[in-house]
Amino acid sequence: MRDSSARGQFVALARGWLAAGAGNDGVLERLRQHGLEKIDCIVVLRTVTGMSLADAKRAVHHSPAWADRREQDDALGDALHRAGFIECVLGGGTVEEPPEEVAEWRDRQDRGTTQLREIAADLPWDALAGYREAMADDQFGEAFAALVTVAQRRDLPDRYWAALAAVAETLCLDEYLDLLGAGEPPADSPDLDAARVVRSRTRSAG
Questions:
Q1: pTM of this structure
Q2: Within a 10 A sphere around the Cβ of 97, how many other Cβ atoms?
Q3: C-alpha pair distances (Å), 30 with each of 2, 16, 39, 56, 67
Q4: 3-class DSSP state for residue 93?
Q5: Domain extent at residue 51
Q6: What is the mean pLDDT of residues 11-21?
């Protein structure tokens, strides 16, 4: 992001270009030629036209000036949206729309709850304090991570790891790992760390 004084200079230039009849697309072409990033173009366009932030984002995103970035940015937006959905599945929030995502969210949490309880039912009560606390708060990702910790400490047989792999699929943890690619999990993400452990264990067993 450019500093406010530099942005102010481009606001003045953009106003001049608009007054000369360049139009929004012409202004955006010039702003990009001057090295402004997409976010800076949004801020400048919003300032000089008075349009809403949403309209400015839309105008920049669909402008000829940024056409070469549209597909990449759309894909990034889709990935970020899906990551947000997965966080809700794991217990980080509530999905309120659209209806098909609400239905998927509820189904995945219901199935995940059943799978987690079936795994925990075969394990010693005294080993499950973390799991019980997480389940009481509907933190399904944390409950999954707690069961993976138990499996590691007690060297549980392959059938437990296969069951944990099924939970990782239900809670979209495998999908989340694929979205991240080769990158490391975000800081303080025991559920993703646990999913990596399960993925490694079940692949080596297979």
A1: 0.69
A2: 7
A3: 16, 12, 15, 16, 14
A4: coil
A5: 4-62
A6: 92
